[in-house]
Amino acid sequence: MPVDGPHHAACQRADAQSPLSPDRLAARSLPGIATALTTGYDAWASDYEADMDRYGYRLPVHMVDAARLHIQDRRARLLDVGAGSGLIGEALKAAGYDNLVALDPSPGMLRQAAAKGVYRRHLEMALGTAALRTGLRCDAALAAGVFKAGHAPPQALACLLGLVRPGGIIILNLDVGEGAAAYDGIARRLAADCKWRFLKSTSPFALFAGGAFGSLTTIHVFQVTGTC
């Protein structure tokens, strides 16, 4: 997802009334989407990791590899967006990061994450919830498996901006295939509005060992350049 010219002369901070601003998004349906998903993830929580292990889920390793490259300070406050059962947090902790915050709307999943003992805080709420923008500002955010069909919509990418300090890092994955263009378009729009700048993308890789389900994804890294 290369985004050309993120700091060209005409680049200015997006207007507060932009349809991509978190304040506008908070009034939309993001918490409603999360409510619909929560039921399914609560029911899956006790079996989730066994299922991921069975198929060789590879995303945590790749996300942490990106963190190592772009977040050198192991004391940095990292927000795990869509933390689920804590697979990303567990991998981050093993890599030396110890100031972790879990965010997920599923209480069942968060109980699994809390049992790992790797997070300092556990926030049971959805991305886009207004309460998130009061006092929560992290050095970086990682969002694994969040931005995809049936989960957070493309417009929700903007909600990450209010959660990470200027200069901070956002690492997320986007699946290859149907719907990818919409996420790419929003990412480019945020860059054009000087909200973030593109740092790096990986080549597409299989989400599961052996290419199970034929799922391909890419990891993208951005640096926050402004506030919302």
What's the topology here?
Blueprint: H1 22-26, H2 30-55, H3 59-70, E1 77-81, H4 87-94, E2 99-103, H5 107-116, E3 121-123, E4 138-143, E5 164-175, H6 180-192, E6 196-201, E7 205-206, E8 216-224
Helix pairs in contact: 2-5, 3-4
Describe what this molecule looks like in 3D.
The protein is an alpha/beta fold. It has a single domain (22-224), classed as Vaccinia Virus protein VP39 (Rossmann fold, 3-Layer(aba) Sandwich). Helix content is 32%, strand content 21%. It has helices spanning 22-26, 30-55, 59-70, 87-94, 107-116, 180-192, and strands at residues 77-81, 99-103, 121-123, 138-143, 164-175, 196-201, 205-206, 216-224. Strands 1, 2, 3, 4, 5, 6, 7 and 8 form an eight-stranded mixed β-sheet that branches. Helix 2 packs across helix 5 (107-116). The protein starts with 21 loop residues before the first helix and ends with a strand. The model is unreliable at 3-29 (pLDDT under 50).
Work out the count of structural domains: 1
CATH superfamily: Vaccinia Virus protein VP39
Second rung of CATH, namely the architecture: 3-Layer(aba) Sandwich
**How many beta-strand runs?**
8
Q: What is the general shape?
A: globular
- The string of secondary-structure elements, in order, is HHHEHEHEEEHEEE
| CA-atom Rg in angstroms | 16 Å
What's the CATH class, please? Alpha Beta
Residue stretches low in confidence (pLDDT < 50, at least 5 long) are 3-29
